[in-house]
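User: Good morning. I'm curious how erythose-4-phosphate would be positioned relative to this chain. Could you predict the structure with it bound?
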Amino acid sequence: MKFFLDTANLEEIRQAASLGVLDGITTNPSLVAKEKRPFREHILEICEIVKPGVVNVEVVSTDTAGMLREGREFASWHPNIVVKVPMTPDGLRALNTLVREGIRINVTLVFSPAQALIVAKAGAYFVSPFLGRLDDVAQDGLGVLHEILTIYRAYNFQTQVLAASLRHPIHVVEAAKMGAHIGTMPFKVFEQLFKHPLTDRGLEGFLKDWEKAREVLGDIVQAATAGKRGR
Ligand code: E4P
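Assistant: Good morning! Here's the predicted structure, ligand included:
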């Protein structure tokens, strides 16, 4: 499973990238607006931090002509940019043209298997079902993801399923168990994936035991250097 971070915050992106398990970024207009910086400059900075990972950039026009203009513009900024269009008839029309021009498209705001079926038939690069927002309205986000993956496997569709709007580690683990190609998550959820109280407690115990026997064990760095010199 690829890990994408669902943020436009440079500090969060840098921190996640330094761990070596980050495959890309998803932004949306709300996330970018929070950063209050010139749009193009900001997106290009994100591209530099996560390269060769992809950066998803969303159009804000709602008509096909506007989406085509924005999509072509974003794609010209950097080769790793994937253009996000919403799951609307205008979005689908824009997708159709942009895909033929070789631009990779992520269809966002997908909430049903029927929508995801259309997205795959249209030739999108990514489909983004929003799990958390479905849960918010008392629908089963993971269930919808399962149905989408079943349909995609039945027809061997090439569109990659990007499980989005993930709100907690269980969302990520369940999406991974189902074989979702990508999970995109806020930085907080990314951090939570690392945590386990037994890891912290275990490390604390190891260090306490080492400290107790330090006099006998000696300094680990000195011992290693002395060993090398003796050879
Ligand atoms: C990803 O492409 C979406 O923009 C994102 O996952 C939405 O998440 P939210 O429902 O937490 O805002």
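The pocket of erythose-4-phosphate is lined by residues 6, 26, 28, 108, 128, 130, 132-133, 164-165, 184 (CB under 6 Å). The first helix runs from residue 10 to 17.
Let me know if you'd like a different ligand tried.
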